[in-house]
Design a protein that fits this description.
two-stranded antiparallel ribbon; Arc Repressor Mutant, subunit A; alpha+beta; 5 strands; 6 helices
């Protein structure tokens, strides 16, 4: 798991006056295992551990985990919101239009683009909250 240890997970929830539940930790663990996942995929992942879990419970848990800065969501094209663990390094999501692969790139690669948009139109973008579409290395080479 790439997220924070359980003690830190619990501490972040308690600091914000939130309850620590096994379901929230299961959902957080699933987000970390899956890396970029929709709520439906998260539900399928935790179904073996918690067969009675509902999609609305997953959504409520994700909302709480996002409020506690443990997970964040990203818009990967026209698909449902995708969640991933908050990480120490900011990254941009690159989505292959052909195979659907999601690749992360350092936010530093967007420094010039961000500055250009800010200078040209006075708008400061958050490149971590969206995805850029294109072709991955495999699909772009004609394979």
């Amino acid at each position: 798991m790439t997220g924070v240890p359980r003690e830190q997970f619990e501490s972040r929830l308690r600091e914000r006056g939130m309850r620590v539940t096994s379901q929230r930790f299961q959902i957080y663990s699933a987000v970390n295992r899956l890396q970029h996942a929709t709520p439906e995929a998260i539900l399928r992942e935790v179904d073996a551990e918690s067969p009675g879990l509902t999609l609305s419970t997953v959504y409520r848990a994700l909302e709480a985990l996002e409020a506690a800065s443990l997970v964040t969501h990203t818009h990967l094209g026209h698909a449902p919101l995708t969640y991933h663990a908050v990480q120490d390094h900011a990254h941009i999501h690159l989505v292959c239009e052909k195979c659907g692969t999601v690749v992360s790139a350092s936010v530093d690669v967007a420094t010039e683009l961000r500055a250009r948009i800010r200078d040209d139109v006075g708008f400061d973008i958050d490149p971590t909250h969206m995805a850029m579409a294109g072709l991955c290395a495999s699909c772009g080479t004609g394979n």
